[in-house]
Amino acid sequence: MTAHIIDGKAFAANLRSRIATQVSALKERGITPGLAVVLVGEDPASQVYVRSKGKMTVEVGMNSWQHKLPADTPEADLLALIDTLNNDPAVNGILVQLPLPGHMDESAVINSIAPEKDVDGFTLLNVGLLATGQKAMVPCTPLGCLMMLRDHLGSLSGKRAVVIGRSNIVGKPMAQLLLRDSATVTIAHSRTTDLEAICREADILVAAVGRAHFVKADWIKPGATVIDVGINRTDDGLVGDVDYAEAVKVAGAITPVPGGVGPMTIACLLANTLTATARANGLPDPEGLTP
Ligand SMILES: Nc1nc(=O)c2c([nH]1)NC[C@@H]1CN(c3ccc(C(=O)N[C@@H](CCC(=O)O)C(=O)O)cc3)C=[N+]21
Ligand SMILES: [Mg+2]
To answer: In which residues is NADP(+) bound (predicted)?
Structure first.
């Protein structure tokens, strides 16, 4: 028996084509969604992601702006740029690429983004709205994971979900989304006692620890659905947080790295930009893009 491979790359391509159709419909009404991405510094991986985001934004028919600032930019200059973008009606979504250089206060920068343009869903307002079950902008990586889980499993109600990782970007919002779908959720992390035993109870296992091959095949309940959020650059290339070669023999379904969660993250960024545009224009949320 070998696991069903959840093809995130194909899923993301399908999602982008549905987004493109809805962008065309908006353009016929004179509305073009626009996404501004801000990159501070020259981190090579970040540059690759930002380029890829810009390309896909244009491909679905949206306006795309990239603001590249030197690593030693004063925080006040970045805040001034965000203020300009907040007040620009052509800009529906703002993404400040993380991590930021060490001299900047990441929370202060993120929370200066207008919540309705916060397509990452990282501002305090959006975090609070999600946590209280209200209409929020939902972080892209967990949203992409949720879409794949629902597509593969149908209802998540009553299922045991274990999220390994407690970050504000992935682990915590992932847990909130799973709870909203009535899964029974455990958030585990590197300090969790008996982590393996806890993972073995999971019908849904989401690995977001940031350590290559961290999750072993014998931590996986036979038939479980495994979502690998890890992006680890190793001598063997890009690998996830799950020991994939062994895990495919045990899991019922699994996302590969690359070609799993990553492409869905970018597609969900576009989905959120479309949602932000609809809301800014008093239109209903786009079909099938919000949780
Ligand atoms: N404000 C902010 N929002 C983010 O969403 C954000 C961020 N900062 N900082 C960095 C992380 C990382 N991230 C990825 C997006 C796509 C892939 C992706 O497409 N990965 C491909 C492979 C890409 C490759 O080959 O390097 C894949 O998994 O198939 C990966 C990682 C978004 N992030
Ligand atoms: Mg952690």
So the answer is: 165-167, 231
